[in-house]
TrEMBL record:
InterPro entries in the record: ArsR-like_HTH, WH-like_DNA-bd_sf, WH_DNA-bd_sf
Name this polypeptide is given: Winged helix-turn-helix domain-containing protein
Positions in coiled-coil regions: none
CDD domains tied to this protein: HTH_ARSR
Species lineage: Bacteria, Bacillati, Actinomycetota, Actinomycetes, Kitasatosporales
Pfam families: HTH_20
């Protein structure tokens, strides 16, 4: 079953939900389900009818996928529903899953989900690059696109990730509380991808 990674104070959405069930991992890997969760986190709550308008899918399809997401704890019914038009909301701001597992079924499902998410990242970045010429100059100059090749130990890479997360945390509250956003603030996606580059052979100093 999904695990809420932090306690949930009354009325406050938890930071993240952790998926460890292979069935939940496989369910979340569906492109439309990832889109629905992402939209609920950024502009929700909303109904299946609104979800259909946002995604271009049918109401029946969105309703079905929202129910699947609810089954695995990623979304839930929001207050204020009337009749069959019930609104949905995300249960957490982020989704986490194991980077490593001794359980082969969990490891396989987690790797498949990571691959699906990476493909989604690539598609979104490609669209952003295609449309960035429409942005004001200050946004084009502020955007970042590049990579770094570092020689690190596993412990150093873990520490680097924790420090990057610490830098980003002060800005997280702005997603759910618009009053915290300064004038001119707009939604910015920041990708954090670090992997052992096996295409570059290890070299040892003599």
């Amino acid at each position: 079953m999904p695990e809420i990674s932090e306690p949930r104070p009354e009325g406050e959405q938890p930071r993240s939900i952790r998926l460890t069930d292979p069935r939940a991992l496989r369910a979340y890997a569906h492109p439309l389900r990832m889109s629905l969760v992402g939209l609920l986190r950024s502009i929700g709550p909303f109904t299946a009818t609104r979800a259909a308008e946002l995604t271009g899918e049918s109401v029946a399809s969105c309703s079905y996928h929202l129910r699947i997401l609810a089954k695995y704890g990623l979304v839930e019914e929001a207050p204020g529903g009337r009749g069959r038009e019930k609104p949905w909301q995300a249960t957490a701001r982020y989704t986490e899953w194991p980077e490593y597992s001794e359980d082969a079924s969990v490891a396989e499902a987690a790797d498949a989900l990571s691959a699906a998410v990476a493909e989604r990242y690539f598609e979104r970045v490609t669209r952003a690059m295609e449309n960035r010429h429409r942005l004001p100059r200050e946004w084009q100059e502020a955007e970042q696109f590049g990579d770094s090749l570092l020689h690190l130990t596993p412990e150093e890479l873990t520490d680097l990730g924790e420090r990057i997360n610490a830098l980003l945390r002060p800005y997280e509250g702005r997603e759910s509380d618009a009053s915290l956003r300064p004038e001119g603030a707009r939604p910015v996606s920041i990708l954090r991808i670090a992997y052992l580059d096996q295409e570059i052979p290890d070299s040892e100093e003599e």
